[in-house]
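Example for tutorial group B:
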């Protein structure tokens, strides 16, 4: 009986290592292109609606301390909803990239996706988030480490 259990345990361990090794990590350049696409498809309409629909003019938007933060917050919420529900934003879908949990099995929760967005902003602000992917095999950024996620090619 214990020999059968050892065989089953060994077989399941081999399957999990096969699953992890079969992940193809998304290239850094594709991630950047997907981000730029998302800016145009998601963030630009939010800014337009905020500036001209809510604030009334660009001068009022520029004079407001709160409006830019609200626009970024809305972008973060929409980003987190898309990542948690589908694992992709429109830009990531265009470049066949999916954001999944670190073991590659499932989508992130809304909270983890929002934390990932927050740490993306932080990492880009201090420029560390731009440099970390060049020094690891999985091409993970600071926000991927903090949210325990990985971007894979599908």
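The residue assignment follows.
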């Amino acid at each position: 009986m214990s020999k059968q259990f050892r065989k089953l345990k060994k077989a399941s361990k081999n399957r999990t290592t096969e699953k992890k090794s079969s992940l193809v990590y998304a290239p850094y350049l594709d991630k950047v292109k997907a981000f730029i696409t998302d800016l145009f498809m998601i963030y630009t309409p939010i800014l337009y609606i905020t500036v001209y629909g809510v604030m009334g003019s660009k001068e009022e938007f520029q004079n407001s301390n709160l409006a830019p933060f609200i626009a970024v917050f809305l972008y973060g919420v929409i980003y987190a909803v898309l990542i948690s529900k589908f694992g992709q934003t429109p830009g990531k879908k265009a470049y066949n990239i999916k954001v999944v949990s670190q073991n590659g099995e499932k989508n992130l929760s809304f909270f983890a996706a929002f934390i990932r967005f927050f740490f993306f902003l932080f990492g880009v602000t201090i420029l560390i988030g731009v440099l970390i992917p060049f020094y690891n095999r999985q091409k993970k950024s600071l926000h991927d480490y903090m949210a325990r996620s990985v971007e894979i090619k599908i």
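The CA atoms of residues 31 and 73 lie 21 Å apart. Compare this with the pattern of hydrophobic and polar residues in the output above.
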